[in-house]
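Appendix B, record 7
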Amino acid sequence: MEQSELARHLGVGQQAVSTWERGRGKPRRATVDVLAQVLELAAEVLLVAGGYERADVPPVVPLMACLPFDQLSDATFERFCRDLWAYRYPDASVSRNGDSGHAQQGVDVIVRLPELTVGVQCKRHREFGPAAVQAAVDAVTKEAGISRGVIALSRPLATPLARAQLKGQPDWALEDGEDLSRAVRALPADQSLQLVDSYFPGYRSAFLGIEDPSPWLSESENEPLLSGRAGYERDFDLVGRDAELAALQDYANGAEPIVIVIGGGGSGKTRLFAELARRDVGRPVVFASRASISPDALELLPESPVVVVDNAGDREGDLASLLGRVDQVISVSLGRRSMYA
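Structure tokens (predicted):
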């Protein structure tokens, strides 16, 4: 096809077509579709060949590499480290080693495992070189009783010289902001979401890529929603329900895929399961919020086995999704009317 003929089809001058052929320019994005029709080619082929940004491909927006630890106070950064290490080592006893003004023996967080004790130093400093690293190590006293130490930095990246300072000290490790952020992402989805929502509200999408709130609530998150409900008093201990509570604990440790508890309004069903969640039943107990349960939401469940408390009793479709993971989930309905029977 001659340049003049192609130009006529496209409604442009012959000089424009010549410029394109010599590689000194390219058609406007709107002209490409017409050009594809004239040449009997797929528009996608021309878009790729011409290096255009395809309109149907969203721009690449990487997730945040590092959480903004510098926005936390010293005490809050210590609490974050406490909770992170508690998730990383579920069999450990993890606690803050006092607060500012206390004699902390050079350790901010104590992680007590059966075979060893780890001390975590939480450092919020813009600059933290090799001298500061060695000073942190030397600040730990024998009274701390640790066998290994970790320096947790709020700054995104530790300098190579700071890391090199610990090469000859195998019982010590350094984790900077990117290391801590990567550790958060490596946790089960429900735990990483809990940490981010607790310490960095508003960052769940930018850091984890999770848009919607999780429909799974812990007992402490669920209880405030019940405050003021008729028949529910959060300030009183549960009494007179030992038999029912023992039966539910047996069910929770059994193999039944679903347990249906039926009772009139104000009979104490909700309070009973709040108490169950506080007991050690050998598996997590979570409460389903009123939000719909999407397939993505199922991925936010704690690692199986888990007890799901549904206080609605009218989720036939959602229950089917839960029972699709019957080997991992026990669904407990507390509603007076049940669609599940």
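Remarks on this record: Confidence is low (pLDDT under 50) at residues 224-235, 325-341. Strands lie at 93-96, 109-112, 117-123, 148-153, 172-175, 216-217, 258-260, 285-288, 306-310, 329-333.
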